[in-house]
Amino acid sequence: MFGKNIEKTPNHRPSSSCSYDNDPEAPQVLRPTISNTDAPPPVFDPDTFNPPDGGFRAWSQVFAVILINALAWGYPASFGVYQLHYEESLGLPSSQISWIGSCQTFLTFAFCAPAGRLADAGYTRETVALGSFLAILGTFMTSLCTQYWQIFLAQGVCTGIGLALLFMPAVTVLGSYFKAKKAFALALGATGTGLGSIIFPATLQYLIPQIGFPWAVRCAAFVALFMIVIANLMLKPYLPPRKSGPLMEWEAFRELPFILFVLGAFLNFYALYFGFFYINVYARNVIGFTSVEAVSLLLILNAMSIPARPIMGYLADNVLGPINTFIIGLAALSIMVYCWMGVKTAAGMYVFCVFFGFANGACQGTFVGANASLTKDPRKMGTRFGMVQTISAFASLAGPPTAGAILDTSNGNFTYAQIWGGTVFLLAAIVTSGSRIASTGWVFLKKK
């Protein structure tokens, strides 16, 4: 893509400058050439930057991100299956075992900041390759573990860090290929989360009784390896590297829209995992589902999130705007968690999971696009995405224990926890609305 164009003259010594690549699918950025002037190289201008917004290379990045999201966020969705096995095989309390899954999720969020900065600096492929190695290594080692500390290190720490290094650079690359269709492309890439949330739990649930836990985990690891090899081969960075710059863009916290968006994202992730962690418990303890039937609810929930993501992404680009769509998703989640209080039958649980899954897909599918809309310079997307994710890590770590503490103090009565979850989502919608108003003013019909 990049090359040199040497111009020879008899009277002048050439000096470094820059020119543009004529490849229509290549980034319209600067490349080194030799010219006859001492003028400084042109500066990257985000206002005039025009990515392809389509074409084979751009859409192939969407496919690569679908595969990466399937592993980065779909694989952790299978932890409920792991938890049941660990409780039976290790004889440890569920609260202790749940720290493995919580640690994995926390590290996947927390390491997004360094992963995003590495991507901005031009080390996307190296970072994704390292993340691939750690995630696959951690999964294979999990199949060999027999003690709690071994499982914690392999599945909680090694895999968690690997998933962060996979996810953040890939999303940054995808966002750089699109402008007018950015929210749709990012939401389409996020459908991988729903696919992975079906593939990995179903694989483990089916294979563990057939071939045993160790080989079932290895089969899941081989599926992940196949997906991630394809993704690594397809992923191609678009923007020129931004070598200088801090790990955290502290200047972003001088922007009121960004500050309010970060707070809204924190509240979103604070309540998000309450539903995923406790729908099974509610179905078993309150409705009377079996363990197998309870797992099927999660599969339905995750399946319904798949069509919601591209639909809302399209609306974000063409009708509503990314932040407006994200706010609607947060409000829908708030309503659904409040409605959960009225679910008292098996049929009601299935209907609830259909609507909750769609609302979750609508919200989380537009989250990244909303974040991107507040980042003017595309070369800072990785850093800013990573900052939001890293801050949200503490919310994802604290949310489920908070819900558990509410359940404990109310003797297993879900009503107070459901009120807490719905209220937190409502606050997230209100705060994010403040971010939108700070960005555009009190113009409600403006697409933002």
From TrEMBL:
PROSITE patterns (UniProt xref): MFS
Keywords of this entry: Glycoprotein, Membrane, Transmembrane, Transmembrane helix
Positions with biased composition (Basic and acidic residues): 1-10
Compartments (UniProt record): Membrane
MF terms in GO: transmembrane transporter activity
Keyword Transmembrane helix: yes
Superkingdom in the source lineage: Eukaryota
Topology of this chain in the membrane: Multi-pass membrane protein
Transmembrane segments: 58-76, 128-149, 161-178, 185-209, 215-235, 256-279, 285-307, 319-343, 349-374, 386-407, 419-445
GO cellular component entries: membrane
Residue span, Major facilitator superfamily (MFS) profile domain: 58-447
InterPro entries registered for this protein in UniProt: MFS, MFS_dom, MFS_trans_sf, Proton-linked_MCT
Region (Disordered): 1-47
Protein family per UniProt: Belongs to the major facilitator superfamily. Monocarboxylate porter (TC 2.A.1.13) family.
PANTHER family given in the database record: MAJOR FACILITATOR SUPERFAMILY (MFS) PROFILE DOMAIN-CONTAINING PROTEIN-RELATED, MONOCARBOXYLATE TRANSPORTER
Protein name: Major facilitator superfamily (MFS) profile domain-containing protein
Species: Fusarium coffeatum
